[in-house]
Each structure stands twice: as structure tokens, then as C-alpha cells.
Amino acid sequence: MGWRAQIFVVAVVAVGVLYAYRGGRDRSLPSIVAGPAAVIDGDSITVAGWQVRLQGIDAPEWEQTCTDASGKDWPCGRTTARELGTLIRGRSLTCKPSEFDQHDRVLAVCSLPDGADINAWLVRQDWAVAFGHSRLIAAAEAEARAAKRGLWAGTFERPSQWRRRQSERSGR
Fold first, then answer.
1. Strands 44-47 and 106-111
2. Disulfide-capable partner of 95 in 33, 111, 154, 171 (CB 3.0 to 4.6 Å)?
3. DSSP line for 19-83
4. Same domain flag for 145 and 106
5. What's the CA gap between 127 and 28, in Å, rounded?
6. Same domain flag for 86 and 126
């Protein structure tokens, strides 16, 4: 095979890999993502085939533990994902995207069929913390902190700090 044919083959493979990496999707942001939802973790879901990161919040990571009021560790990352799953229960959600994040997920505020904002609900119930500049989410966090619900009932490390510490430990 000549060098031109080799370059052509490499180019075709590269385009195929890129297409597969992007999930075959075009990069344009949808105006609405709606459909059946499934939980990935405490702040990430799939909706109608899209990976969605719930905007304005940060939930404990899957492996993260927190401490309850009596000083006992509990699996707050897994618990948060389970609570989100209980709320969603496979129902269809409507998500309003704003942009893609660095992991190519859709950043969005999502709501249940009755219009309830699940991003704010997670923070208000204190299964997640505010992450960004949303006044609604910040108010929900203040309400949860004052009521000492969920994460605020004991002590915890903010998920962003926990991720940073895990990254430093692994040398990334």
C-alpha cells in the first residue's frame, strides 16, 4: 500500500474514532432534552440517551463517605444516587440545557412531570451542595444547612475538595 493510501486509512480510522467518542452526535446543544431518566450518580443522569450533568449542584462521589451526627461513617455518595433514583423512579424528565461540560455531558436544570426542579430538590434535601452562582440553589443549601438534613446532619467534605484530594493521592 502506498503512502497516500496509508494516510487515507489513518484519516478514516481517526474520523471513526472521533465519531464513536462523540457518540455519533453532532456537537449542537439541544434546546430541550426530555424522556425517560436513569441515574448514573448523585448529580449525573441519562435522559433520552443523553448524559446530563445536573447544573448548579455538586453531589458526593460514588465512593465518598460522610460522617453522621454520632461520628459514624456512612456512604453518602451511594446514598445520594439512591435518593435521586427514588425521586426519579424511571419517570420522564424535561431538562433545559445550557452548555456541554468538559466531559461532553449536557449541563442542564431538570424537572419532573409536575414541574419540580430536581437540581434544587437535591440541594434542599441536602443530598448535594450548591456549585455555581444560582440564587435558587444557594437558598436551597442555606435551608438544608439550617435544618441539618442529609449531609449537614453530620460532617462531610465538599465533593469538589474530595475529588481534588483523590486526584492528588493518585498523582493525576
1. unpaired
2. 33
3. HHHTTT--SPPPS-EEEEEEEEETTEEEETTEEEEETTEEPPPTT--EE-TTS-EE-HHHHHHHH
4. yes
5. 31
6. yes
Are 59 and 137 in contact by the 8 Å Cβ rule? The answer is no
pLDDT digits (tens, 9 = 90+) for 96-113: 999 999 999 999 999 999
Instruction: Identify the burial level of 138 via C-beta atoms within 10 angstroms of its C-beta, where 0-12 means exposed, 13-18 middle and 19 or more buried.
Output: middle
Q: In terms of domains, do 14 and 36 share one?
A: no
Which string of b and e fits 67-91 if b means at least 16 CB within 10 Å? beeeeeeeebbbbbbebbeebbeee
Residue 64: count other Cβ atoms within 10 Å of its Cβ: 20
For the whole model, what pTM was predicted? 0.80
Q: Which residue has the cell 435522559?
A: 47
Residue-wise pLDDT for 39-93, tens only, equals 999 999 999 999 999 999 999 999 999 999 999 999 999 999 999 999 999 899 9
- List, in sequence order, every residue forming a beta bridge with 92; answer none if it has no partner: 36
Indicate whether 68 and 118 sit together in one domain: yes
Cell of 107: 449541563
**Same structural domain, 11 and 74:** no
Residues 79 and 20 both lie in one domain: no
Q: How many alpha carbons fall within 13 Å on the CB side of residue 88? A: 29
